[in-house]
Amino acid sequence: MNLKKRFRAITRIPLGFATVLKQMFQKPVTVQYPEEKRPMTSRFRGRHNLKRYDDGLEKCIGCALCAAACPADAIWVEAAENTNEVRFSPGERYAKTYEINMLRCIFCGYCEDACPTNAIVLEPIEFPTGYTRESMIYTKSQLLESPPINVAATPQQTPAGKYDRAILPFPPVDSSV
Amino acid sequence: MPNFLEILLKAVMFLVLALTGFAYMTWIERRVIARMQSRIGPNRVGPQGLLQPVAEGLKLIFKESITPAQADRFVYFLAPMLAVIPAISLFAVIPISNNAFFNLAGGLDTAVLFVLAMLGTAVYGIALAGWSSNNKYASIGGLRAAAQVISYELALSLSLVAVVLMAGSASMNVIIEKQLPGNILGWFIIRQPVAAAIFAITALAELARAPFDLVEAEQELTAGYMTEYGGMKFALFFMSEYVKMVALSALFTVFFLGGWSGPFVGDSWVLGLIYFSVKVLACLLVMVWVRATLPRFRYDKLMALGWKKLLPIALANVVLTALLIVLGVPGYK
Questions:
Q1: What is the pLDDT, as a whole number, of residue A101?
Q2: Residue range A23-27: average pLDDT?
Q3: pLDDT of residue B184 exceeding 70
Q4: For chain B, which end, N or C, has fewer CB atoms within 10 Å of the first or last residue's CB respectively?
Q5: Which residue(s) pair with A156 in the sheet?
Q6: Model confidence, pTM
Q7: Closest Cα to residue A93, out of A120, A67, A59?
Q8: A28 with B35: Cβ contact below 8 A
Q9: B201-236: b or e for each residue (b if 16 or more CB lie within 10 Å)?
Q10: In chain B, which residues touch A (CB < 8 A)?
Q11: Which CATH number fits domain A48-143: 3.30.70.3270, 3.50.30.20, 1.20.1740.10, 1.10.3470.10?
């Protein structure tokens, strides 16, 4: 290195110091997570949400196709029969047990794709966290969304013949009329 | 023995000062360097993270004390103590205010020599730690530390020779008084800029701090000489490093920034203490700033800088200073 180059190099050192000092007076980029949250995109695959119809019935019919599609084997579904007196979902059956092991789940979204009623949706809602393995197994009550305002939750008592089909025709046909 | 109580009080005071200074220096460094890197730094434990050092101290105390199977047990236990004692001893000769009470060793006439002796002794802790751990990273770290500190000690001593020549004494109090003429121009950093620069650079090397932190270069040596240390033994090495950092900042303040001097300092020792603390803190922040800015030296360049550049410049500076003093140039006598 010749003298001129060396001199140039030495004069650049204060510039480096100035850059670092300037950085000190800029806003830190840190996001302090539990208090501050970054916005997620609307299509972010976060926690699973079990959806309801507008009349409060659960979309899930307990078919367990999501469990079959799940590559991580994280979903456990047990179905039970609906009756008109104790009805959870349209059609014959509903999910009595619906559990997702959030430690196994890889958030791939295959369950969404497999679902015939669009009952399970991965949404940009709060991400599953916990201190124990047991607490990371989310049960149906944790996954199910709350019913719309002024609509009764499940189980509902429904008129006979109204919910014979598991997948409702659109718009829903009121067969009692 | 009327003096015994006073000595005890002073010793306890300086020890507490050095230890809290060390603890909070780690906090200051982490917060400041975080801001320099666009981060926030530790802010969870207590307000603004102020209890972080306490939490870490507690954690380290409760760690299991492990000795490697192949280690030289006696030396392995001795090394952390050998590292921390000279570091704390440095404070004995540093006058932190203009009141005689704040001068632990009572204004030692050979204070500069004491400082050099303690800095030299501190290498033993590091070198022995590296050797006794019986670990290749630790050995290399220890050897590097020994080589580095010995190389830079020469230039460091020579820069202090210039200061001693200027003051005509090796006593800290005389050195400060010689810088007193009222204004900032009396400071040795103005009258001895070369010595000040060499002292600053060699002090960084002596502390094995960035950009001279080859002793514990994480990428190649994991943690260097303290690889095999954990718990409080590790904390002692950390303590020696940070206490030395504070001590060398204090020494820079005394030698080049006029120590406790400042406007109206004669009125109260509190003012002297404040001036001194502010100057030391400024030096410490500059060290953090340097660490945040400069990359690590390559080992051969480190040696080349020490032996081929700093040492000749320091020697030339001593000769020049002596000449200026003999010729009676204004500002030098």
A1: 92
A2: 86
A3: no
A4: N
A5: A87
A6: 0.76
A7: A59
A8: yes
A9: bbbbbbbbbbbbbbbbbeeebebbbbbbbeeebbbb
A10: 32, 34-40, 289, 292-294
A11: 3.30.70.3270
